[in-house]
Amino acid sequence: MAEDLPINRELMRDLVCRLEDPDEEVRGTAAEALAVIARDEDWRPDELIRQGGIEALGELVADGTTRSILPALDVIIAISASGRGEYLITSGIIADLDRIREHDDSRVREKVRDALWLLEAEVEDVVITKPQDEY
């Protein structure tokens, strides 16, 4: 699989590092590049997850500007749509999304709604399939 090629692992590691860069311009550009990669219908987020990218996306959503939030939301939606939403849920991304639910930019609000819609279905699946605690 192409995702397992060393060059792709290095590229993802570099993008995740840039998502955490102190310079907003660098973070925004990295988020945009990652969103372009995630648009490919064959893209799988496994390498992004292995590299700690979900946490970096959560930080961007929580503290970023609209320029970096929009592509970060595109990637979050792509991860959810790929069936890997459980990684987003366990990282606390829902709380990050809730904090920007009433963002000034209508594009952000719409993407947050889309992401939460996908993730809420995933939460229901996790709750239903989780064995119940015995009391």
Structural account:
There is one protein chain. The chain has 8 helices and no strands. The chain is mainly α and 135 residues long. α4 packs across α5. The longest helix is centred in the C-terminal third of the chain and has 24 residues, at 106-129. The radius of gyration is 15 Å and the shape is globular. The mean pLDDT is 89.
What tags apply to this protein structure?
Leucine-rich Repeat Variant; 73% helix; 135 residues; 8 helices; single chain; mainly alpha
Write a short abstract of this structure.
The chain has helices spanning 6-19, 24-38, 46-50, 53-63, 66-81, 85-91, 93-99, 106-129. The protein is an all-alpha fold and 135 residues long. The longest helix has 24 residues, at 106-129.
Beta-strand content: under 5%
Judging by the overall fold, what is the CATH architecture? Alpha Horseshoe
Radius of gyration: 15 Å
CATH superfamily grouping: Leucine-rich Repeat Variant
Tell me the series of helices and strands, N- to C-terminal.
Answer: HHHHHHHH
In terms of topology, how is this protein built?
Elements: H1 6-19, H2 24-38, H3 46-50, H4 53-63, H5 66-81, H6 85-91, H7 93-99, H8 106-129
